[in-house]
Sequence to fold (557 residues):
Amino acid sequence: MSKDKLVIIVSHNLAQVEPYITRKIRLHDGEVVNDELINEPKNIVPVETDKELSKDRNKVLNFSYLNFKAQPVRTLLLFMIVLISVLSSFIFIVNFKANLNDAKTKVLDDELFINFDDTRLLVRTLEQDVITDDIMNGAMVDKVVSVEKYDYITDVNYFRPTDYKYVIENGYLDDMDPVTVDLSYYRLQDFTRFMRSACSLSDSDLAYGRLPENPYEMVVYASDDGLLDTIETVMFNDQRKWNAGVMFKYELKIVGILKEPTEQAYFSEKLCQLIDLLQYKYRITVNYQVKGAGGAYKHQRFHFDEIVLDPNIGEYDCSFSKALFNDASSYLFSSGTNSNLSLGYYSYDLKLKFNQKNCHNIHNNALGVSEDLFDVIYSLVKEKKQFAVFIEDYAYYNDVKKDLLDNGYDSLSCFESSTKGYDESKVIIRYVNLAISIVAFIVVNIVGVILLFTILKFRKNDYLIFKMNGMSNNLCKKINIFEIFIYGVISYILVIVLVLLVFGLTKNEVLLDAYKYVRFYDYLILLLSTGVLVLFTSRLFSKFLEKRVKISSISED
Fold:
């Protein structure tokens, strides 16, 4: 206890002081009744054994339980303060994370893309491989909901009959194909719907019918099967790549009805390939021979604006439209007519065989081809190296981009690429929200510490009684830390459970949008802030006890 001073200890607990004394004197009724040597004087360093540590743990648990039981109102109040502090901290963490995203402050233009869908990413492999099913399946990383093989069509508007109407004012609407749109006669509505192929669907997505098998078929949503097997005239338009006011229209049969409500229509793979080729703004030149009045043959040529699939011909046949064919007897086709096929920057010489018995009525100025011939043309012109993926929400964009890169894919956000600047007023609001979140987070925790400390101060007398009964300062600190620690642990668990329940059941879009930005490390940040709240408060109260509770215990000098 001391090398150069006599230390006299008065205690009613011999077992507690016996390891530290050299002489024991017992008093009774003011008289010495026992005086004996206990230990030889030596340097004694108090050592807590495992058994003593175990006793301390039991004491901490017992006294903490007695406190909970003896003072339920005060215990509940302390717990509620910790719970409210933890919950408020989480709310401000979520708000801060949501405002870190600057998407809503951006100004977009259509220089690259018309479809600003922020869930759409264009993807290709780092090695620039030609895409296969395996490559597309490999891009189905976490938070990717679907893969679209034909990336170009996701920028093409489509219009079902409910989306367009005629406005006859002066003259009449020219019904030639492709449709030439004069806005004084013709009006389109809802330029927000873009094409998707039925490749991303399965039979399990359908309530009625089947998936498209033929080129001119599609799948839509309806509340019943009333639309099944009906025909719709659907128009397609690309404001950016096709000539202004030019659209293509097809008569499409509805062969499937989706289970889940959606305004999205899904088209056959072949039709998507046809639309895919239109990005080249191609013209097709076909050479042919015409028998003149004198019996001589003259070489002529036709220019076509489009390739269409003619379901009535097979093998590698071609066909004219009825408007161009007119009288078949006025034409003489060789079985191997030479034709020059030009699509964009590509040019191929193909031997085309024209079917003289069939002609199509799809587009007036279009060359009809069989599916087999179309496959040849498409494979020559279109070497697919890029496709599109759709993610759950833009909030997961960085996560998905990283996962794709780890799997060997490069990705481009159509939304990010369309950014040309920021809306300054929205940027200011965003920064204000970020500042509010940070300040509020700090204030909530400071107020939490102050309130906890204020209530704990009323428990000073409890610890005074503990120490009068021989309890050490160290054990008092342990009881103090343990009790506040329990409040923090239970509060943290309750907040996590509450958050998962609320965001799992709520339909509130604001809450759902904010929660999308929460990641696992945000829960770690919350855990850290809860730990700091608990430890700082208990430390502050322990210092207060050391200053205000003056009775020293045996184990302290």
